[in-house]
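Workshop exercise sheet. Pairs work together: one partner reads the sequence aloud, the other fills in the structure field after running the prediction. Swap roles for the next sheet.
Pair: D.N. / O.F.
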Amino acid sequence: MDKMWISVFNNAFFSQWQVVVKVEDVNDNAPEFSGGATSAMVAVREDVDVGSAVYSARAVDADGGENGRITYSLGGGGEGAEFFRVDPRNGDVILARPLDREAREELTVTIQASDGGAPPLRSALRLRVRVHDANDHAPQFERDEYRIELSETFPTGTPLATLKARDADAGRNAKVFYRLEPENPYIAVLRNSGVLVLKQRLDREFRKVLELRVVASDRGFPPLESSAKVVLLISDRNDNGPSFDREVYSFTVKEGQSVGSTFGRVRASDGDEGDNGRIFYSLVRDGGGLFAVDGRSGKISTLAQLDREAAGHHELLVEASDGGEPKRTARVVVMVTVEDENDQAPRLVAPPDRSILLREDTTVGTVVGSLVAEDGDKGPGGRVTFRILGKYIFENR
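Structure field:
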């Protein structure tokens, strides 16, 4: 609005008026964002609260009145308009729903500034929203439990398995470190890689199963962590040979016992498991084919009629072998004594012709000869006694 004075005069009169000139606005200016910008970028943490202002868009309009009054809104286009709303009065861009960097790392939204003209003029600002990571994910193992078969011969200092935990966060929040809880004297885990390493030799005879708890933690603040169970199943190696429960076995068998009769048993044990601990018995010396041993039970039996008079003692050698590869063996001596049975009749050996010569004038009570008899049996069955049976028989010579 401008003011001016207008003067009118002639030769006789003079007049003066003040004139107010009011210039009405034409909506010839569109709103303009700060600096004439058409795009902008802002970084936002993914854990920012819903309802928080993440950006303030500011535009100016050179027009006056309604033509210069600016209203803000979300324009079309952009991948992420559903996450935001804009305050129509001041242009604050407000978060409308939670962000998740692991789902979307970047969003775009168009902010539109419109004036109050008729028709209104508009301008747009394309806003890129970079979603920065917050440590909202703990490392996750692929499984809750790992079962690993491990031979007790596995060399120390050698990696035996690798456990991997993945963290969906980014940067240092996704950096994973590993540890054992509690620490274990046999197994270690490499801090940066999750590799399990054998520290000292395992002995299945001492421990068949070893359970561990591996913890994975990230470098966020505060750090998040998770754990997995590791079960080591220690498989056997053939490091134990059979061992008999006696140094020497002694058995007695009667010579009249029937063929196939069992009269004794040997026993061996093996500290290994499976085939490595399974024992088979055999005879290395079988007494000339007179004896047999059951391969599974170790029972010893006769293969033929025994004759004490032929052999009263037998020395057998039994071998116990396991099923390992290579197999291990042990041997033990078995002494067999054949008990006598009264199966032998006495035999007169003297006088050889079974006759005694004596003179007719031999006085009563005179020793006229000696009888000698032998019996192949032993003990009471081999003791010989003499008696006279029947009538006296004399022959003249």
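Discussion prompt: The chain has a mean pLDDT of 86. What would you look at next?
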